[in-house]
Amino acid sequence: MTSSEIITAVVGKEFTVRLQSNPSTGYVWDVQTLPNGITPAGSDFEKPAGSVRVGDSGTQVFRFEAKKPGQYTITFVLHRRWDGKDVESHIVTVNAA
Q1: Of all helices (H) and strands (E), which one includes residue 79?
Q2: What is the CATH number of the domain that holds 17?
Q3: pLDDT category, 16, cuts 50, 70, 90?
């Protein structure tokens, strides 16, 4: 399964990509393709609000910065790092100005 989104970014300012995940089951999102002109700025995991139970999903938050104007494509894959099978992909088109 593949999903996609379009993001507008300002050159020199951080932007985020938020993806639902459930790392307690081993499934995490990783950046598969990162073009020149986009720099990673870190990532975090946000737990859902309220009472959290073991196995609850959350949101992986990836932070990036566009270094120059242009259109870029970042590809993410959802997988268990140890089994080598991608379950899902997410394509982000970044329009940086």
Answers
A1: strand 70-80
A2: 2.60.40.2020
A3: very high
